[in-house]
Specification:
This protein is an alpha/beta fold. It contains 11 helices and 10 strands. The strands form 2 sheets. An 8-stranded parallel β-barrel has the order 1-2-3-4-5-6-7-10, surrounded by 4 helices.
C-alpha cells in the first residue's frame, strides 16, 4: 500500500467515525425529544365557572368540552342541577369536592350513603375541600379533623372511592414547632386519606411544590393546576389579591418542573382551577388549556 493510499484509508476511517459519533448524538437527541411527556388528559375543577354554571349549565359545559377538557371535578353543591348537562358532554366525572360540614359534623350513615351514591354516579375520588377559618383553632382542632378524615376515608374506601384532602395555605403556617399540614399527614392513614395538592396554595405559603411532591410520593393522586402572579407575598390565609390567580403559563410557577415531579410522584389526574378570573372564566380555562396541551416536560 502506498503512503497516499494508507493516508486516504485513515482519513476515511476518521470520517466514518465522525459520522458515526454525529449519528449517535442525533439519535440521543431524538430519543430525548421523543421521551418528553405531555398531559394525556386535562381536567377542570368546575368551581372555576361557579358564576355562570348554575344559570347556564348546558352552554357552559359544552364550551368547556369544546376547548378540549376531558375530565371534570365537580362540587357537591348543585350537582343534581348540572348532572344532565354534564352527562351530555365528553367530560368524565372523575372527582368531586364534598360539603365540608358533612365530613366534620355529619352523621356516619349520611357520609356512607353519600359515598355510595357518588360511586354509583361514576366518581372515583371524593375530596374534603376546605376547613373554614372558624373551625381551624390550634393543632387540637387539626388533630380532631384528622380523626374525622380517617373515618370518612374508611367509608369512601368501602364504597370503592379514594378519599383526598385538598390543601390551602393555612396548613403550612408554622405552629408550635410544626405545621397543621404535617400534623394532618402524620395523623391520617395514608391508606385512607390521600392528598389533592393545590400547587398555587403550596407556593403562596412559601413552599416548593416539587419538593413536597417528592416527599409525598405515592400519596398525591390529584393535582390542582393554577398559576401565581409574580410578586405575590407569602401568606397563610385565603386573603390573596384577586390578581394573584393566573392562568397556567401566565405566572411564575415552573410547570415543566412541577409536572415532571408530579409524574414521578404518581399523580393520576390534573384539574385546572382558577379561583378568580379577570373576566370570563371560560376564556381563562381556554388559555390554561392552550398552554398545557402544548407543554412538554
Amino acid at each position: 500500500m502506498t503512503h497516499y493510499a494508507a493516508r486516504r484509508d485513515i482519513m476515511g476511517l476518521m470520517t466514518s467515525r465522525r459520522e458515526f459519533l454525529q449519528a449517535g448524538s442525533l439519535a440521543a437527541t431524538l430519543s430525548a425529544t421523543s421521551s418528553a411527556a405531555q398531559l394525556r388528559s386535562i381536567g377542570v375543577q368546575l368551581y372555576t365557572v361557579r358564576t355562570v354554571l348554575p344559570d347556564k349549565p348546558a352552554e357552559t359545559l359544552r364550551a368547556i368540552d369544546a376547548i378540549g377538557y376531558r375530565e371534570a371535578e365537580a362540587t357537591f353543591a348543585g350537582l343534581d342541577k348540572i348532572w344532565p348537562a354534564l352527562q351530555a358532554t365528553r367530560l368524565k366525572p372523575v372527582s368531586i369536592h364534598l360539603d365540608s360540614a358533612m365530613i366534620t359534623k355529619g352523621q356516619d350513615d349520611e357520609i356512607a350513603r353519600t359515598m355510595d351514591q357518588l360511586k354509583q354516579k361514576g366518581f372515583s375520588y371524593a375530596v374534603y375541600p376546605y376547613l373554614p377559618p372558624a373551625e381551624r383553632g390550634g393543632l387540637d382542632a387539626i388533630k380532631t379533623l384528622a380523626a374525622r378524615l380517617n373515618a370518612a376515608g374508611a367509608k369512601a374506601r368501602a364504597a370503592g372511592l379514594t378519599f383526598c384532602y385538598h390543601n390551602h395555605a393555612f396548613e403550612f403556617q408554622p405552629t408550635e414547632g410544626t405545621t397543621p399540614f404535617q400534623v394532618l399527614m402524620d395523623r391520617t392513614d395514608s391508606k385512607l386519606v390521600s392528598l389533592e395538592m393545590d400547587v398555587f396554595w403550596v407556593s403562596v405559603a412559601g413552599n416548593d411544590p416539587v419538593a413536597l411532591l417528592g416527599k409525598l410520593s405515592g400519596r398525591v393522586p390529584l393535582l390542582h393546576v393554577k398559576d401565581k402572579a409574580s410578586g405575590t407575598p407569602v401568606m397563610y390565609n385565603e386573603s390573596v389579591p384577586r390578581t394573584a390567580f393566573k392562568e397556567a403559563g401566565n405566572g411564575v410557577i415552573d410547570w415543566p418542573k412541577v409536572l415532571r415531579a408530579a409524574a414521578s410522584a404518581g399523580v393520576q389526574h390534573y384539574f385546572v382551577e382558577q379561583d378568580q378570573t379577570p373576566s370570563d372564566p371560560v376564556e381563562s380555562l381556554r388559555q390554561s388549556f392552550a398552554f398545557l396541551s402544548k407543554l412538554t416536560y
